[in-house]
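In response to reviewer comment 3 from the previous cycle, which asked for concrete evidence that the modeling workflow produces usable outputs, we include below a single protein chain processed end to end. The sequence was submitted unchanged, and the resulting structure tokens are shown without manual editing.
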Amino acid sequence: MTRPPHGLRYSDVTPRQVYLNRRRFLAAGAASAGSLELPSARGTTRLNSLVKTPYNVGNETLTSHEIVTTYNNFYEFGTGKDDPAQNAPRWKLDPAWKVRIEGEVIEPKTLDLDQILKLAPLEERIYRHRCVEGWSIVVPWVGFSLSALLKQAEPTGKAKYVEFESYYNSRQMLSSRAAGIQFPYVEGLRLDEAMHPLALLAVGLYGETLPNQNGAPLRLVLPWKYGFKSIKSITRIRFTAKQPDTTWGIAWPQAYGFYSNVNPQKDHPNHSQREEIRLGMGFLGQRRVTLLFNGYTEVADLYRGMDLRKFY
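The workflow returned the following structure tokens.
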């Protein structure tokens, strides 16, 4: 059940014309997020009243909506890059979606989407997103800093880490045996990482609610870390005193460390991380040099004095 997956080489990244010709995903999306308009033709819902943010990247070209929503990793809906866009739209989201916050907290809480969306104004943040497999995209996410949610439960002095858990329903999603990883999907952060203002709780992209395949109705976006750390479809958050075990950390610890900061000096067991392929830039994408922390140098103080090859 926890067989090591095979990492992709750069030549394994699917050519642009192939994944753009994949079967279009069926209309879907969370219909209960934020200040809304009528559903769009894509089945998602427009988000209004987005505020300006200081967290956008510079003058980088956005990756197309089509690529971002049809080329995904979401093993609950299949292990191929186009599987989530084909399979996830058939999943019916619960309109009464709730997130449980518990563990080392003063006051455990269960919040629904409406309560979560009232915690902070929604921002559109344009972030680079780097996958451990070697490809990258630039996405206009919609959400707000994760810290606004975490502060609601008032973590105790014992809280050192935050554990996140995705929704899982074996009747609607791939089995752990078929996916090769354990479900429900679990990820974790050190508390100071989770509280950093760049850590985004996302409810949308391109001004619309998240499609199912991108992690509806809410997910993390951690732009300085490899993409698998940005857990999707969150239903539970637990503050812990000890470093939590994570899904990929159990499945293949040599490749998927707890920190997994983007680092050109720390290779994946199957390939170099010194370069990446920016999808949507020409026939096979544009090759570019990988930047430490994916270029988000403002997080460097979080890891001062740490050996980033050891704590990968």
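The helical segments are 16-20, 65-70, 83-87, 113-117, 147-150, 176-179, 191-194, 247-251. We consider this sufficient to address the reviewer's concern, and the full set will be provided in the supplementary archive.
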